[in-house]
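User: I'm putting together a small comparison set for a docking exercise, and I want a reference complex before I start. The sequence is below, and the ligand is adenosine-5'-triphosphate. Could you produce the 3D structure with the ligand included, as structure tokens?
Assistant: Of course. I'll restate your input first, then give the structure tokens for the complex.
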Amino acid sequence: MPVSEYSKDSGRTTDVQTQDQTPFDDIIKGHPLILKGLSDCGFTNASPIQVAALPTIIAGHDTIVEAKNGTGKTLTFVIPTLMRLKLEQVNLQTIILAPTREIAVQIQQCFKKVGQHLPELKCEYFIGGTPVDIDKQKAKCCQIAVGSPGRIKHLINEHVLKCSEVKSFILDEVDRLVTDKSFTKDVRLIDAKLPKLKQTIVVSASIDKNDMSVFDELMKEYIVVKGAEEDMNALQDPSKFLLGIKQYVACVKAVSTNIILLPAKNVRLLNILQNLPYTQCIIFTNYMTRVEAVCNMLRDHNYKADYIRGDQDQSIRLELVDRLTSFKSKILVATDLIARGIDSSNVDLVINMDCPNDWATYLHRIGRAGRFGNKGNAFTILDDDKELKMFKHIINSIESIKVKMLPIAITKPILEYADNELADLNLTIEPEISLIQETGNNITKVNGNNVIEENLTKDSESDSNLSRNDIESNINSISEEYQPCSEVKSVYAYGVSEKESLQRLCKVVKETEKKLIEGNMVDKRLLTDDRSFVLFDPEPFLENNDKYPEYSPDDLLEIITKYDSDFDKYEADKNRMLKNTVLQTVSENELSNSNQVCEKNDFANLSNITDKKINNINTNQQLQSQHEAQIVCEDNKQFVNEVCPETNFSSKSNKSVDDTKIDTNNSQRLRFTDIYSLFQIPDFSLLKPAQHDSEVAHSTDVGESDVSTSIISENGIEDEELLEEEWGSEEEDDEEESCDAEESCDELESYDAEESCDELESYDAEESCDEQESCDAEESCDEQESCDAEESCDEQESCDAEESCDEQESCDAEESCDEQESCDEQEYHVKEENCNEEQEKEYEEEINLEAENKIFDEDITNKNCSYDGHLNNRAIYFVKHNDKSTQKSICNNIQEYNIPKREEENIENNDLQVVDYKILNDWYGQWKQQMNLIQTFVRLSK
Ligand SMILES: Nc1ncnc2c1ncn2[C@@H]1O[C@H](COP(=O)(O)OP(=O)(O)OP(=O)(O)O)[C@@H](O)[C@H]1O
């Protein structure tokens, strides 16, 4: 049994030292076995918070325990729980909730250690990402259950964990549990199932005054026990920051995209690591996708580094935490997954690669160093503009602290800098931020998300039934972190990677929508039409504006918001697209023609089936160009019918299906069409499917490539209850990553991502199923009707089914056929029969462009790159960056087509991108899951 690293050391800060030493024997009477356990663990003297909290808790009071990170809060509830345990009874007596699985496991380990001399002790953890069956076995004989809210709730609902004898209910990291919406409902639900007569203990290092009302719900009368008395300031309010942690900010020059920012931050990171002695280091980033990139970068520089994030297998996650706590890994790159609770006594350096999303996250992150009075250093690497402002804003909202600025050039070991050699960070908040905070106009600054660059106010006129003033006043009334507003019309994410951007988008949209719905703020059309995302790369336009004067940011925004500003056209395009979703089963000479019309439900299963089918098709044929790319499906009819099982596809076609040839490009097209039909993205209708070969299309390096990504989508929402239930079920399984996307992800990564999709990524199908089942049990009949058990077990299926319904409602099969007949073979898009002159003109332009693009395509197809279409005459192009000469010639081509040419050096920086539609499709699949839920709610609400 490892002895506490801290047991014999007196050189610790007063955060953990009492004036007179207080041995545990003085506090704990009549429990020799527990005392023996404590002593074996090296716990002899109680820390200040233990001295303060233990008597109160042992006396049975409901208690709020608030003390700095790493000061020993865990023992404040572990010891009393063990003391009051009726060991002779095997029933459940205590439930402990924690917001992450890793914390839950750590708490359980603490119980095991301290209670090592209590042979009858049965303490188990119950967390998502592990088989429920095993949990059910464990639950049969369990006195203390520690777990994440989702799994605990599930087991209670299943009557596996029986609550009638529970005497104490403990919430660790309570602020997270009661403020993160993915937990609150579960926490309340669990609380409601527990006996009224019980002791409730809530614990955290970051309790916000605003959360106190929630505690009133959980506890009738309670005692608040706070931090170390030595550290009280005049207001008797203990500082939240550890005395042993020196805080620094290291700035890099602000640029408009993360693509450029990240390398600069990496340099800064290396610089810090080279100039500072440290034992163990945790590097935090807001972005789930970035942890691996940073880790690899460090490994490239011969640092021994691991990375941990929410989408890893749970066993791997636990193993990684174990490697950290057992000092096997020197550097761990992480998301906020381990920002809280994780205790590794040797961590003395924390580096934030981005501005944390809120003060609590910052506090907890840097609290991973300086455990139990240790000394440590915390660095936050920020751009010198937005991130720096955000950081100031964050820490100012806690208290006045001293943060030092690291010089741009570090000329000697950091610790050799005298205090006066380093400037203090000027913590004055510039008015801009508070202004934005007040108006809620800019979601970026509100949530500190630097991926989502900004929202657009200029096209905020909406076609909503609500006036803009109404909306604004509604919005201003929301005083929460995410401030949804009608101005959040367009969010474009770029830099980092497609996946990350998308995750972030998902989070922000999800959060925004939730707020909108919860606050009953908007009519549906705001949600449906006011939000747009565009797939494109804005970097050259934004970054090198002087070089590309023809693309001003305004110009760019106009591109993005075109459909927002012209609602009628948007509607028309949307309808046209929905009705005429094109499945191009092209033959060699008909690449650009829209040959067949398929209803939206035809595409419902495309993603999965097409992929499977394509794999079955001759995968050995690595075809080099679209002309060579014909793979004749042996039984095309069967294939098509398999692809579109819901409709008799062949009967809708004006040509014989037997004549249809399926090629790899077509496969791409199927996916592509699938994507835009799923997301109803008008602008995708202007994007011509990629004409690249399969190798390019399935390039695997895209995951790490930096690319700008946005999407146009539309939705409508209602039915708050069901919505929350569904989302809750997605989130519960990986609650911690909701910070990623993700909370930043946000949204989206720091909801974790971030969150956002982080939860989806780590989303456990089994858990989801269980969750849904329990949802069914809990929810009303209406909801149950809508949540068919079978559907809910397979979310994808559920989505497909829902879509099919939607489609059937909105699309008439006969109409589709008519439209198909009216198609001109030369047309790029299937046009509606009754298109007016203006549309025709536009349409001709498209055809012309198409002709140009075709030549262009042919050019680039042979050069191993892809041109993905045009948007308002602007190119969408993604080019594989494996061959410099190819890139050069592509750039020349790009110039010929009046598309801004990129600088050669930028190409080397992976500036040109590959979009892998398969990967995109997967991400969009996740997006789709959420969107479909929303659509279902809308349908239900009608
Ligand atoms: N009385 C004690 N004597 C020696 N070591 C202790 C004592 N109490 C706690 N510790 C050690 O201090 C470290 C931090 O404790 P703990 O994890 O409970 O802190 P915490 O306040 O819950 O931190 P966080 O807020 O970050 O979760 C642990 O390694 C624990 O073993």
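The mean pLDDT is 58. The chain has 39 helices and 20 strands.
User: Thanks, that's exactly what I needed.
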